[in-house]
Amino acid sequence: MAYMGDHGRKRSRPAELVPGTTRILSLRMDYLPEGSQPLAQLASTADNRATAYVARYALGRDYHKVIRQRLVKLWQRMADELLSHGISHHSARVFTDSAPVLEKALAAKAGLGWIGKNTLLLNQKAGSLFFLGEIFTDVPLPVDPPQPTNHCGSCTSCIDVCPTAAIVAPYQLDARRCISYLTIEHRGSIPIALRAAMGNRIFGCDDCQLFCPWNKFAHVSRVADFDPRHGLDSSALLTLYGWTEEEFLMRTAGSAIRRTGYTGWRRNLAVALGNCDFDDGIYQALARSLDGAPELVQEHIRWALANLEGRRP
Length: 313
Hints:
Blueprint: H1 14-17, E1 23-30, E2 32-33, H2 39-45, E3 53-54, H3 63-84, E4 92-95, H4 103-109, E5 114-115, E6 121-122, E7 130-137, H5 157-161, E8 167-169, E9 172-173, H6 179-185, H7 192-198, E10 201-203, H8 207-210, E11 220-221, H9 237-241, H10 245-251, H11 261-274, H12 280-289, H13 295-311
Parallel strand pairs: 2-11, 3-10
Antiparallel strand pairs: 1-7, 4-7, 5-6, 8-9
Helix pairs in contact: 11-13, 12-13
């Protein structure tokens, strides 16, 4: 991800990103939708070949918009409180995965948890199924101490279950192998050697969280914005593959899924369909869609057809 280097030192020097910054408030917000299946059942869903798996964070409204609005409201309340104490000259700026901000490192230093072996922030009372947000300010607030202990111990569940072996060592992730990167950020061809391991995962992957013992403490969100839209928590792969570009744009309006684009969406679904057991309906749908598809999608369709052909009874 070359863009990570675009802003130079601003990632590690907040005052160069927002001049005057002396403090950063780090916050988290749970996103596991209310009514979600137990994590053990979700783990098995991620291997149900005919049903699409979308990372839990992306099932509802785009979290950037939800969290940003809440951070702004929070700071407004804090500004009112500061004013009541005669403090009127201050500045603040809010972020959530939207700027060169080292969110996990800041959250760990603020005492919200520790960086786990899967490279995610873990919290003893909330697992890892939460978003992070920050408020940069020049108000000299008291500083919280970081959590003194890493609680991963000898557990290697996240490393053991990663479908593509992307967690190459404890605390080290090779994004080039990570399904979340491949299905969302990556714009080109998905490496052939990794396609079968992707299974039915069409947007993101939760395996290193679903199998993490600390997520037995994950909190269910009661924010309706994070509830699943358009049945994306239980949709058949073939149904989603049948969406036209207009349907895709309509049904992903206000969703993080828009980031992959329609071409990426079709590419991901072609791989997932190619990982299904042979089904004549799937085979024919893929074959019919070959002509007229972008070359990137055609390549993955051909791979899927060859895979299915190899499973034909």
